[in-house]
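Q: Joint fold for the lines below.
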Amino acid sequence: MVTRTRFDDSECPVARSVDAIGDWWSLLIVRDAFDGSRRFGEFQRSLGVAKNILTTRLRTLVAGGVLESVPASDGSAYREYVLTPKGEALFPVIVALRQWGEQHFFGPGEPHSELVDRRQGQPLRAVEVLSADGRRLNPDDTTVHKVPTR
Amino acid sequence: MVTRTRFDDSECPVARSVDAIGDWWSLLIVRDAFDGSRRFGEFQRSLGVAKNILTTRLRTLVAGGVLESVPASDGSAYREYVLTPKGEALFPVIVALRQWGEQHFFGPGEPHSELVDRRQGQPLRAVEVLSADGRRLNPDDTTVHKVPTR
DNA sequence: CACAACGGTTGCAACATGCTACCAACAAAG
DNA sequence: CTTTGTTGGTAGCATGTTGCAACCGTTGTG
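A: Joint structure:
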């Protein structure tokens, strides 16, 4: 086969997550959904993606339980795509990716969109990995317990 | 053109991050690097990826400053691939993805690999998004400041 | 020196991506 | 109610990318 390799049966949660999202477009769709996009046309204009691609990605995300297709909120006969709780749980992933990008791909004065705390208008604190008792962990402070392949 | 669309000039940091990583294989390579893999063959066996794919992905990651190619630590003439500081900064992204996967893609008793605190052997605390003053933020508590497109 | 392991490269065939054109259902204006 | 524009797609095509398998030089090993 030459289809893209699937990871949905991996015992590694990272692999399954990656598989469920599907591709980068899907992740940017989720980003836009966090940012308030709901309609097909909104996603299309914001992303500049071809409509057939957007169609398949939205379908995949709905099938994967990340998005949900609901009747439009303005009473029209169209439909809208909104995040499910499972989709909303991707928030830390998107924020972490955003912060990584901010730190490494923009020059000091280079403008970029910014995610801020709505209540105070302040940028967010950097996402951290913490131990059960609250210590800040670096990669070296952790280790992976592999499950025996049986 | 039919090349995959690039996002490296987007003003959105999420898009640039996504573009820099390249594809899912690359992310899994980074995951394995956090898990201690260093050699070409280690990545290849762990991922089961075709060698030509692995070759190009490693090259892309090195070019993007995520990995670095260094002389092998065992004194042999081979080379190894290790994370740069920029690559290590992806740690929260991987952990967040892992936790999302754990929560949504495994049955209660289904076995999966697990990332634990090395010192105490305990699973990690869930990654959270916090405001500057430490409040836990949900997606609705935040808003994106878009930069004018000029 | 022989032989295996390592780290690739090359050449396909199949699939995915992206573009453009097309189209049906809906909405708004007249 | 008819015209016109918007919304949300589908269909077809050219090209790019993926994955497999075969091959190959270099390095380590007995």
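Q: Anything notable?
A: The helical segments of chain B are 13-21, 24-34, 40-47, 51-63, 85-88, 91-104. Chain B has a mean pLDDT of 93.
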